[in-house]
Amino acid sequence: MRIVRFSDGAEPRYGVVRQDKIEVLAGHPLKDGYEFTGETHFIGDVHLVAPVTPSNVICIGKNYADHIDEMGLDANPEPTIFFKPTSSIIGPGENIVLPRQSKRVELEVELTIVIGEQCKNVPLEKALDVVWGFTIANDVTARDLQMTDDQWARSKGFDTFCPIGPWIDTDWRPSGQILESRVDGHVLQHESISRMLHNVPKIISYVSENMTLQAGDVILTGTPSGISEIHRGEIVECEIEGLGTLLNPVA
């Protein structure tokens, strides 16, 4: 099942995508269940927004060996955790805005976990039980600031630096699918998620050992090599096999 948030001119609502239509839900699916209103919209007639409004945007850095090499960093035996502010979230089709403070902004396609319930100290073997679904994110980064600042909060936290979408897929499960990024149709990143140093269950279990996860929280799982600078006027696409494509213009 693919869950979207959309606006038709009013406050965003949730719905389920069935082929080219959205069947509208009566409330929040995590809080109110899957009760349908009977209202439907063609998906092209509404504006999709970020499919989730998390309390926390948790990110895992340095999770692909080839990306660690291209960045000239050292690998860690445990997952590297950092955060993006919720104010950085935008939805599909919305502009990534280049900040004046940076001279080099880059894309990072990332498989993203959406947590389905409050949880803490989740055992490895039960990690997928707390997952609501999966989506795609672009961990947009001001690379020059990342290299000069003492930590990554500013370089990864600008407004519009966390596109998420286009939907949450509750049936999709990671099994070696390809993730890919493109700029104006040119492929920049192309890698299997099986190349993660820390897989999805390990990430969920590890993060939950260190903090309580809330329903709706998202965890970005890292990016492979091929990160590239983006420029005004370009179209950025982040795609994961079987999960969809997240498209955002650069402004």
What this model shows, in words?
The protein has helices spanning 29-32, 65-71, 143-148, 153-157, 200-210; strands at 2-7, 13-18, 21-25, 36-42, 47-49, 57-61, 80-84, 89-90, 105-106, 109-115, 131-138, 141-142, 162-169, 178-183, 186-192, 218-220, 235-240, 244-249. The protein is globular and about 55 Å long. The protein has five helices and 18 strands. The strands form three sheets. Strands 1, 2, 3, 4, 5, 6, 7, 8, 10, 11, 13 and 16 form a twelve-stranded mixed sheet that branches. A hairpin with a 2-residue loop joins strand 14 (178-183) and strand 15. With 251 residues, it is mainly beta.
Secondary structural class: mainly beta
Computed over alpha carbons, the radius of gyration is: 17 Å
Inertia-based shape = globular
Average pLDDT across residues? 96
How far apart, in Å, are the first and last alpha carbons?
32 Å
Oligomer type = single chain
Main sheet overview: 12 strands, mixed
| Residue share in helix | 10-25%
Number of helices: 5
Beta content: 35-45%
Poorly predicted spans: none
Number of strand segments: 18
SSE topology string: EEEHEEEHEEEEEEHHEEEHEEE
